[in-house]
């Protein structure tokens, strides 16, 4: 930023004003929503639901594979 | 000269003032924590994955890999000057793309599966058609003035790039021209991730900041700080309301878009290596982070605890990826191997 000129600095001011105006929501709500979203997804997550990993695409089925 | 300096000083003061106001606005909404929200959640226990395949083929360091949307094909890039497209079910190499420049840093698969793109120290992003009889160069996107660190297709006609010249760029593949240039970072852009609705993307840079951009307007909507060194890796959380970053400061962080701040960090005193790459499981509960210590460590994203490790590489893990169906994770390394785990 030390090499910036006046027009670039003015752009930065505009950008910061725009970013300041963002309507922030309370983290008590947003984090609760995030946690709920993850928990709802766990049953469909193959890493966390072994049932879903039963048809493992990276494990050979049957005895031999003809090359 | 003096009046310009005076104007600069007053603008700098204005910037500092605005940044202070942004910090205050963040504090004002920070009334909840991940640890309290996640407190009652069940533990995931120890996550122990098996090495299913070791893909041999590259002759030098692997720098990047990307899954195809079919969750079966995958493309990898190595400084041996080749892109390899793999069928991960058989472990076979399907296509080899020779590169004009061996100094590749990033590779991407188009959602259609027809195209791949790569670039690196040549400052270009080259797009190849891999469905033709032999790989054909479709476009050479040449306008960045710094290395190509990351690229991601939106479709067969648009691609996003992140560059060491501190900008990100949206390109039109039909004309080969830049559509939008995203300027706001003050350090090399290292990584980017598209939101699911493709209206926004996030970028991580060497200025230790992550930024959220409006893809069509070209504006920086939000800036996230907290890291103390280069951000090398960034991924959107599946819900789209958060993203995860990995940094040379040896930590990963989850940033929440709605409250505009970091909500949890992932670090451990025993981990003294930079994070090079990261991927998320489909629910977002697990973070697979590749480190300079040759391992990929697995984190519980909610509880902030290490729950597993993928050991087996003989050099830095440089890239990590989970396919769309979430059925496993791929790690790529400077040891020239790709490994598939689940």
From TrEMBL, chain A:
It holds the Pfam family G-gamma. Keywords: Cell membrane, Lipoprotein, Membrane, Transducer. It comes from the Eukaryota. SMART domains: G_gamma (SM01224), GGL (SM00224). It is a lipid-anchor. Gene3D superfamilies: Transducin (heterotrimeric G protein), gamma chain (4.10.260.10). One of its GO terms (biological process) is sensory perception of taste. It is found in: Cell membrane. One of its GO terms (molecular function) is G-protein beta-subunit binding. The keyword Membrane applies. Its main location: membrane. GO terms for cellular component: heterotrimeric G-protein complex. Residues 2-67 form the G protein gamma domain. Belongs to the G protein gamma family. Guanine nucleotide-binding proteins (G proteins) are involved as a modulator or transducer in various transmembrane signaling systems. The beta and gamma chains are required for the GTPase activity, for replacement of GDP by GTP, and for G protein-effector interaction. G proteins are composed of 3 units; alpha, beta and gamma. This is Guanine nucleotide-binding protein subunit gamma. It comes from Eleginops maclovinus (Patagonian blennie).
Automatic annotation (TrEMBL), chain B:
Keywords: Coiled coil, Repeat, Transducer, WD repeat. Gene3D superfamilies: YVTN repeat-like/Quinoprotein amine dehydrogenase. Residues 1-28 form a coiled coil. It holds the Pfam family WD40_Gbeta. WD repeats lie at residues 55-96, 141-181, 182-223, 224-265, 310-342. GO terms for biological process: signal transduction. It comes from the Eukaryota. SMART domains: WD40 (SM00320). InterPro entries: G-protein_beta_1-5 (IPR016346), WD40/YVTN_repeat-like_dom_sf (IPR015943), WD40_G-protein_beta-like (IPR001632), WD40_PAC1 (IPR020472), WD40_repeat_CS (IPR019775), WD40_repeat_dom_sf (IPR036322), WD40_rpt (IPR001680). Belongs to the WD repeat G protein beta family. This is Guanine nucleotide-binding protein G(I)/G(S)/G(T) subunit beta-3-like. It comes from Eleginops maclovinus.
